[in-house]
Queue: 2 jobs
Job 1
Amino acid sequence: MMQPMTPRRIIGVCAILASALFVAMVVSLRLGAYPMSVTSVVTTLYHGAIGQMDRIPSDFRLVIFGIRLPRIAMGIVVGASLAVAGAGFQSLLRNPLADPYVLGVSTGAALGAIISLIVAPHVPLAMQIAAFAGATATIAAVYFLGRRGGQLDSATLLLAGIISASFLSAVIMFLMTTLSGRDLRGMAFWLMGDLATPPQISISFLFVVMIAAVGAIYTTASDLNLILTGEQEARHLGVNVARVKIVVYISASLLTGLAVSVSGAIGYVGLLVPHVMRMMFGSDYRVLIPSSAFGGAIAIVLADTLARTVVAPTELPVGAMTAIVGAPVFIYLLRRRVR
Amino acid sequence: MNAHGTPVENAPRGGNPAAAASDVRLTVEQASYAYSVTDRGAPKFALGPVTFEARRREIVAILGPNASGKSTLLKLLAGLCKPLSGFVRVDDKEPSQLDPRERAQRIALVQQESALIFPLRVWEYVLQGRYPYGRRLRFESKEDCLMAENALSQVGASELRDRWMEQLSGGEKQRVILARALAQQPSLLLLDEPTQHLDIGGKVELLRRLRRLVDENRYTVVVVTHELNLAAEFSDRIVLLHRGKCEITGTPREVYQRDILEDVFAAPLDVEIRPGGKPRVLLRDANGRGERME
């Protein structure tokens, strides 16, 4: 049967994933040093949603709205951003292993953010802009290093990304060691990713930028489907490949910069999530982009919940959780795809 | 045809009175091209000038040794680059001037396809041919599905519809790729070595199918190939290129002359005319007698 993509199917998939995200949020809100029952979490959320804050016990209000919900919201922004950036890079580079972390883009963004902290520590948005600049510069460098004889070579591209990441990590370690007196947050934050520190910037602003960038990538969804089949063929079918590339590279770098500036370089979300979504709902980018956004949010919310509960009262960096799951899957995909 | 690609009833196929009067679909007039000049000042490679015409229901074969400019000529026809001198016209429009989507509604180009990196069903692949008719982010309509079904049945691949692309044999894949091009409803179909990876049975089958499609649907087909004898068998017109120059154009019988072919392909060849009037190229042995090539 020919079953072309319909808006109904996309809405259906989004509804399923939104429900799953809600469940993940409730689970995450419940767990922690101050345990709460599911009922009290749901009633607290309900009273909060209809604006009856005075009916919520004050300690619940603090735990839910003061501590856990902001952290979850940040996890949603970071997860959605990284997963959609990964899906975008995968199509443009025609490489199923592309991901902001593997390509070194996240580390480039982290370096940009650290440099802005050294040069302009108190300028608003400087860190986000610097992280975006770092991400853009890194993807441009990796793209050109990954070319061989004018063609993008899958293995060369990955090597270029991994080498760039390790070089940029070394620069980060150098900066952090020599400038150890300054407030640059921990090494683990920048190199592994961590949601424990609340961002300096309003979360609703992050949401707006994230939705705008995901929306920009979404306008190219049909084009990305064709580019995935082959860049030349896409051009012959009437796709304006140059325009699509600019839109997606800029938006994906923006998403990566945004995520890294608030959470550090969390790895493998951009690789794992689109892959799982492809297996569940197919490779069509019209459904893959929204499903990756939800899936990324779910993945980070769950990974962060694990990160702060498995060895409680100590916390693991969330990037350690994603890497423990992500690295083996990366190896599996590498062995299956790249010959 | 509007720029946003509503599927206006394909003008070149039925409506356009000017084109119908002359029946000429593709005009190439003194077209030439040179690749970007290198630092040292010499153009890397030049083509042309080339002049020929193709009508409806004609198959034109572009022949020539390697590096004779065949692919460059195909790019000019597809509008991927603009001729430096002269012009290329498809239904009175210059392809290089058209907006990419409008161009894809008139001209379909099939080259060696890239390897797929994610699995794709045959029907999804063929539906991609409907892209030029859609607005950004649009969803395929019933009509698009019908066109894709139609294209698959035109190449005799309806039964492959639900298979995965990666499971197809070489010949099946080539037919599906052709179906995607037909789903574009082009008036001009450009094929770059479509028979390259097929065995002789597959080659003959594909070309027979192409011949039938052209006869029944008024497509104009330009095919780049190395197959001298198959080109003589299935094409109406030959364009023979040699070192970037157009050596000769005409019917197979006009073009297939022993001294010309021997010179162009640098091989001892012989030409015999078969009972139907079509020429056949043979390899000449040391004694000067012809030997069958295939």
Job 2
Amino acid sequence: MRLTDREIWAALHGIVFGGLLLLGFSAAVGGLWSLRREHMADEGVTIRVRRLVNGLWALAGFAWIAVITGTWIIYPWYTQEGGAQAALHRSPSTSGWDTFGMEWKAHLAWMAPVLVTAAAAVVGHFRDELAEADRRPVRRALIALLAIAFVATAAAGVLGALVTKQAAVR
Amino acid sequence: MSGDRRKPFGPAAAAFLASGVACLALGLLAPVTAFDPMPTVGPLSAQTMIPAAIFLAVWKGLAFFWKERDPAARPVFIATFAMIACGLVLTFPPVFHLF
């Protein structure tokens, strides 16, 4: 049982950073959903918001690391001569995993860091004020932003796993 | 919060709109293969680096101009999510392979 350097990078990209990102979304959305001044004391709001801001910036960091390692480290191995991409194009029954699966994943995934960074910046700007009743539309828009980022990450993750199942980067 | 001055919506609007513009740019650049600044990565490097740079530039630029402004939230949300939706559609391979 042994992993090559490339398999370790692929695991870091998809399982470690991508996995942490997917896990973090539910915590961030839950935190935003329940962030209401009428439900907690001032001190509670401050603690929750601090946790939310730190958590969202950490998520944004994971998202940027995941897409940067995917695009600049793993993708060149995928497209190199005789690599996984070439293996997929050897048969018409598997070429779609590259022309559809990898093409979509490679672009869609980049939406996640942008959307999570924007969400972190907005929460960091309003801080405790975000819990006020009249900031509810902002909280809802943030939840929508994170939901889209989650869908983009999940779709990219599933496609990445399926492409790897057909032809792994080794 | 009573007695505190309310924070302006401008810097938040800048982040929302910048994310929308970046997603739209990802979609618009997906079919563009002519620009290949890093041969080891291929056109994907430009297709992703340019939207990331656009995101930072639009975010910081709008945040600077809207530091103390309070633009209406609704049009900002509508524009942001419309651009994200267009970006999602344009990054879908059966769509961008048409171009």
